[in-house]
Amino acid sequence: MTGQYIADLLRNEAARINRPEFIGEDPVQFPRLFDTLQDIEITALTVAAISWGRRAMILRDARRMLDIMERQPYCYMMEKGYETLDPALNIHRTFFGRDLQWYLRGLREIYRRHESLDAFSASSGAGQDPYPAWRLAESMLRISADANGGKGCPRCLPTNMRTTALKRVNMAMRWLVRDDGIVDIGVWKSIPKSRLFIPLDVHAGNTARALGLLSRKANDRKSVEELTARMREICPKDPALMDFALFGVGVHGELDRILDTPGNTDIMTTH
Fold first, then answer.
1. Helix (H/G/I), strand (E/B), else coil: 92
2. By the 8 A CB rule, do 50 and 92 touch?
3. Model confidence at 1: pLDDT above 70
4. Which of 6, 12, 84, 123 has the fewest beta carbons closer than 10 A?
């Protein structure tokens, strides 16, 4: 198969998955519940922070986390409602009350200085940086650590920016930046969607490797850069759109069907 075959496959899969029907099955539904920018931003970042594991569990625990924040995340944060939270409360798998407290303390400090996270992103220069998610996360980590007595929290923001795939921040940024008005929300103006990176997890990485789009075995920052570079060849103005394609190809046995189709056996060597 040629590179054109893979490009067409991914474009078709992106169009198939990037539909309103997808919203109800995905964590993106939660920031979409709100109208104000601040509530959307806080919900996007905190829900993305717990978006790993089984999808049904993620959705269940995201609802519970919003209930903890009284369905008013900005007010809850600014009024320091999190300080009465039990630090040992299990919110999602290894994410506890203490982690949500850490994140909201840091976010509150950012909002004390800026009207929105979009404004903070603009002031950090993320939109001009070739790696905006890492630039933004590094700036957020610095302020959040200061707001928490110098302590980091890898469950919220990874501390090693040189190696982390930064999957959850890249996911939140896809929600906040992409503006096609279908699934993603597109409320941020500080970062162009052409500079977004693929939110790389185990599922997306395995699918990309099977299609010959990723050579590295580790799901790290270099792999994100390699995979996104390939996606920019296919969709230069909107590479993160291909996140939907990787999801679509990988679910419901679709990848096995493609690889088992006669004539597709050389797809894995396409570069």
1. strand
2. yes
3. no
4. 84
